[in-house]
Structure formats: C-alpha cells, structure tokens
Amino acid sequence: MNFSFRYAANPADAKSYDTQRLRDEFLIEKPFSENEINLVYSMYDRFIVGGAMPLTEDLKLETIPYLKSENFLDRRELGIVNVGGDGEVEVDGEIFSLSKKEALYVGKGIKNVIFRSKSSNVPALFYLNSAPAHTNFPTKKVSKENAIVIQLGDENTANKRVLNKLIVNEIVETCQLQMGLTELLPGNIWNTIPSHTHTRRMEAYFYFDLEEGQTISHFMGEPNETRHIFMQNNQAVLSPEWSIHSGAGTSNYSFIWGMAGENLDYGDMDIVATNELK
Fold first, then answer.
1. Is the pLDDT of residue 144 over 90?
2. Residue 246: phi, psi to the nearest 5?
3. Which domains are assigned to the chain?
4. Helical H runs in 60-186?
5. How the cofactor binds, per note (predicted)?
6. For residues 6 and 43, is the Cβ–Cβ distance under 8 A?
7. What letter does residue 209 receive in the DSSP assignment?
8. Distance, CA of 263 to CA of 256 (rounded, Å)
9. Which of 14, 77, 178, 238 has its CA at a distance of 20 to 30 angstroms from the CA of residue 199?
10. Distance between alpha carbon 75 and the CA centroid of its chain, in Å?
11. 203 annotated binding-site participant
C-alpha cells in the first residue's frame, strides 16, 4: 500500500501556479505499479483516487493513517472499474469477476477487499474511487450491459462520444459516489463539451486507452482563468468544484469520471459557453 495526501487549493492561489505546481497539486501520474495499491487522499470532499495492479500476488485493500479506522471501508464506500485484463475482486469472501470496463460498487462496512488478476501476462488494472459514506448499501457489479448508455456530441465538432453511466443512483444505491466511463469515437478528441463547473461536487478524471506516443491536454481552472495539464495514458487528475474539466487528445481515448459531494444529481452543472472560456 502506497498513499499520499493532497490539500485543497483556493482558486485565487491556483492562478499563480506554474506548470510543475499545477502537476504537483492536481495530477496523479502513476495510479498503477506492479503488485501495489497506490492511493491519493484529497481534501476535495475527502475523495480518494487510486489503482491496484495485482500481477503475481493478491492485493488486499488496507486502511491508511488518514482514515483512523480499523478497516478501509468502516466509514467509506468504494467504486472500482477494471481498465486492464480480466480480474477478480473478493468482497468479504464473495468473488466478483470484472472484465475490462466493468464496475463494482462496494458499500460501507465491508471488512476485506482483495484484488487479483486472472493472468499475470495481461494483469487487471483496478481504478479506484472512494468517498465518505453514512450508511450501508449492498455491493453490486455493473457491466456495460447494465449501464445507462448515452450518445453525445457530433463529428463536426470532434466530440462524438459514448457515455456509460455505471455507478449512478439510477443503477446503484450510493451515499455520494458516482462513476461513469466515456469513450471517444475514432476521429474525435474533445470531452465534456460544453465545459462546466458544479460547485456542489468535486470530480476526478482518469484517462486511458490512449495510443502510445499520444497525449491529452486536460483543461482546468475557473472559466475565466483556465490552465492546462498535459497527460499520458493511465493517469488521473483532480478537479476542484470551482474548476472546469475538459480535455482534448491528439487521438481518441476513453476516460472515467468520478464524483462526490453535495448531491447525486448528474445534471447539476453550471455550463459555460465554449466561446466564453478564457
């Protein structure tokens, strides 16, 4: 288990950050490393972002000092999306098989969560989001067949994409966690258009399925004070409640969005017209 801590940033202060400071504060460069679980504890709604990569051994999700709890999920809920080879998640003795782009919600009060790959040649990559929880909800697997699928965008504006709602309140009972997966179609590069903020929720993005040698420019900041962070495949970024969260890649890609905060209303957003961004 590896873990680190990130403070929340005041938008007035973030305006003065240089490139390296932006990356230090918001970018999560390496969620995955062999036979390890890597976690970042953020002060944005006390959201945790991380990854588990079981290669040759099982990995157990242990508590970390910031939680001051006996078990990781004593006061938390957990969302898992597999972005690698076939794997299994054992939840208090019950085994759930997860193929690529399948999700699992694990509720508050679970004692043991164990990750394993079915093959070390093509290991599973379990992307993790966790938020504080006030009550217990059942563990539930969500495959792409169970997802709410929405077609968005237009090829004329290079943002035609498929949005898969996975861990959302229409499918899974949660306290505050929501997760979904968006796939950009070939020839399309822009995500989350029009840009928006939602001051009642923070968000984290995880970019994957990006071709080797390509990059993504993730746009953040207040609508009139935008900044960018260049990102690579299998990297995540924190998005404060005051920040937009859009991106453009040099090729198409997929990304996972995870949210926590004041409500579970997916449509609760303050849209900013594209030609008003600065």
1. no
2. -130, 165
3. 14-134+143-276 (2.60.120.10)
4. none
5. Binds 1 zinc ion per subunit.
6. yes
7. -
8. 19
9. 77
10. 20
11. yes
